[in-house]
Design a protein that fits this description.
By secondary structure, the chain is mainly β. Helix content is 9%, strand content 45%. The chain has helices at residues 18-24, 34-53, and strands spanning 57-58, 66-72, 80-84, 87-93, 97-105, 117-125, 133-143, 146-156, 162-165, 173-181, 184-191, 199-204, 212-218, 221-222, 225-226, 234-244, 247-249, 255-262, 268-272, 282-286. The protein has a 17-stranded mixed β-sheet that branches. A hairpin with a 5-residue loop joins β8 (146-156) and β9 (162-165). The longest helix has 20 residues, at 34-53. The radius of gyration is 20 Å and the shape is globular.
Length: 290
């Protein structure tokens, strides 16, 4: 299936150099201020270029599931193990899903070189076996030697990906939820450390399938290519909740699928752990970029 989530292009805020302000006031900026001004301008330009680079980003584009040999996992009833070239994590399947949520500490990225690398962490309704997807979360982008992190949301196919906050940092406490009432979806992300990254938005979709709920670490795509997975060590999904019909529970309360992210040769890129004892959390460990 092909769900194309394109990032909104945000224009950079105009920045007035401190030296220019000093000249306007009729004073002369001393030489010691000039490197700071240049650094500020360069940082702003780098951020603007990084955001522009994700305008064609696809999050939620999900390769077909590939069942692992052996079928059902012996230890957990209802768990099926599958592989994907861009998703790692868990998906519950069924019908009538109306809420999904989780919390996590934003991972610490390790960017190297100038090759663009990305890693998205999100919760959502739909996408595993349907052409609609309603999702929100966080994003790491390694771009031209810089490291950038964002919060975002998406309602496909109604609109492109919406980047909300760009001051997200490693170690921030994140809570993400998607809640449905009829054809109305409320998408919410809270960053406890940097409130500018938090948001709540309500969108509508009368044709969305509501046939799955997901907790995913993803290697986003650009065009037809899956981009290298940014190194993030480990993403720890916690406090996961889900509601379908009249039943509210955790990941293990429904038919759940453990998804291992692999490359085109079958080598593991992102390895999910087993669910914890409460059935409401797991980790995905970065193994390789591509």
């Amino acid at each position: 299936m092909h769900r194309r989530l394109r990032a909104a292009l945000y224009s950079a805020l105009a920045i007035i150099p401190a030296a220019g302000l000093a000249m306007g006031l009729g004073t002369t900026a001393n030489a010691s201020t000039r490197p700071a001004v240049a650094s500020t301008s360069q940082a702003a330009a780098a951020k603007a270029a990084a955001i522009a680079a994700i305008k064609s980003l696809q999050i939620g584009f999900h390769d077909a599931n590939h069942p692992l040999a052996g079928g059902q996992h012996a230890a957990i009833s209802g768990l099926t193990q599958v592989q994907s070239t861009n998703w790692g994590g868990y998906a519950d399947t069924g019908s009538g899903f109306s809420s999904v949520g989780a919390s996590w500490t934003e991972p610490t990225p390790s960017c190297s070189g100038r090759t663009e690398q990305l890693a998205a962490f999100w919760v959502g309704i739909d996408g595993y076996s349907s052409s609609s997807v309603e999702q929100d979360g966080t994003l790491i982008e390694c771009f031209r030697g810089g490291t950038f992190q964002y919060t975002w949301w998406e309602m496909y196919p109604t609109n492109a990906i919406q980047v909300v906050g760009s001051s997200l940092a490693a170690g921030d406490s994140i809570t993400a939820t998607v809640t449905r009432s009829g054809s109305s979806y409320t998408l919410k992300v809270t960053d406890s450390q940097h409130s500018a990254n938090s948001f709540t938005t309500t969108q509508s979709c009368s044709s969305c399938a509501n046939s799955s709920a997901e907790w995913i670490a993803e290697a986003p795509s650009s065009g037809s290519s899956i981009l290298p997975l940014a190194k993030f060590s480990t993403w720890n999904d916690a406090n996961s909740t889900v509601t379908a019909g009249s039943t509210s529970g955790v990941i293990s309360s429904f038919t759940d699928n453990e998804i291992t992210m692999i490359d085109s040769s079958g080598a593991v890129k992102g390895q999910p752990s087993a669910l914890n004892g409460s059935g409401n959390g797991f980790s995905v460990t970065w193994v390789r970029a591509s």
